[in-house]
Amino acid sequence: MAKKKEKHIVDKKSIVEAFQEMAKEKNIDREVLQKILEDTFALMVRKKYGPEAKYEIVLNFDKGDIEIYLIKEVVDFVENPTLQISLEEAKKYDDTLELGDEWVEEITFENIYDSFGRRVVAVAAQTLNQKLREIEKDRIYNEYKPREGEIIVGEVYQVRRNDILVMHNKVEMRLPREEQIPNEPYKFKKNQTIKAIIKEVRRVGGGIPDIILSRASDEFLARLFEIEIPEVYDGIIQIKAIARDPGERSKVAVASLDPRVDPVGACVGMKGVRINSIVKELNNENIDLIEYSDDPKVFIARALSPAIVKDVQIDPLVRHATVIVADDQVPFAIGRNGQNVRLAMKLTGYQITLVKESGEDIELSEFKEELGTVVYNQLVEMGIQTAREFLATDPERLLRLHGMTRDTLLELREIMLKEFDEEEDPHFVEKINEAWAKVQAEKAKV
Length: 446
Fold this sequence. Notes:
Elements: H1 12-25, H2 30-49, E1 54-60, E2 65-75, E3 84-86, H3 87-90, E4 102-106, H4 112-116, H5 118-144, E5 151-159, E6 163-168, E7 171-176, E8 193-202, E9 210-214, H6 218-228, H7 230-233, E10 237-245, E11 249-256, H8 263-268, H9 273-281, E12 286-291, H10 296-303, E13 309-315, E14 320-325, H11 330-334, H12 339-348, E15 351-356, H13 368-371, H14 373-381, H15 387-392, H16 395-399, H17 406-419, H18 426-445
Parallel strand pairs: 2-3, 11-12, 14-15
Antiparallel strand pairs: 1-2, 2-4, 5-6, 5-8, 6-7, 8-9, 10-11, 13-14
């Protein structure tokens, strides 16, 4: 017994309601969606009846109705069946029709496959989905691109090895490992709320825009200050500079435009309530609040807090500062693994050489044998005369010297640091590796 052909009965009102719900869910403008649907049905008509076909599509979202009409001219002799119908045939439907009249046929929608054919319906569905995806991509990009630098509160969707996926208003965002505060992947669980800054929104091929979040950036810390400290939000207190080791320690330079407002005190808040809320959000990251000064000597001295500085000598042309501290203050000035002086340099924009009040430093000539004549002469030409000055010099400058390599630089630093009974900062090793990679890449281009 032959299998009865399956009828695909379609409720037009249900289709319209489904598209209305889609427009609402994806936040697509109803008029835009209506135009896309009209174009899609028009595509189906042209695919079925040819590009010359005359038709009219009526899509009424309010009534939940879809009507498609095929229009033909009543003629005595049919030359083009797509555009014409014979008078004899037309009178079977309406005996009032005359030659030259328009005959209108409603394309039945109840059985869409019989009306248009499976292949035509499949092509139309594919086109419709593609247009909806394009609108969705543009909507997301246009909505979030202007919000770069803004803090959002989302929900952890998935914790992966290198990323944390975050959902915000049904939009997927990505918090890469390099933008996370160390050890935080173990803190956040699925469905937990997370606060982060929108660092970048970029188009990636033809896919959904890649929205990059950050919790490790300086901007994230600045936005937290704006949220927790009204004076910062109102512009009474300005954040002049930020230096940060995410999750460990930060230095924030603040200045007040109102002489009656203490910028540091206002940021700390009563019993530390303001700053403590920020510290808690940053996984107990220590925050040093520094009052900014236009005088670089004063600013550098404050930036080295908690160390007490005896004197600061600066060379503004090369942005280098020699800071003299009492012998017992050296550990505080340097900080654990050199963190304090490194953050102070980033905050102020000055290379800082720390010198004990007792005058402890070593002439560079003492290391001439280890340096080699070629490298030593280049250093002297650069104005570097002591071991402290060598250690404070940007590694990228040193790696550009003829005869200097990454391993040589690390070995020389180790020799000099031993003379001062100090250890290399592992973060500085990372900086050397980055500088070496950059120098090598530039050489490869040449």
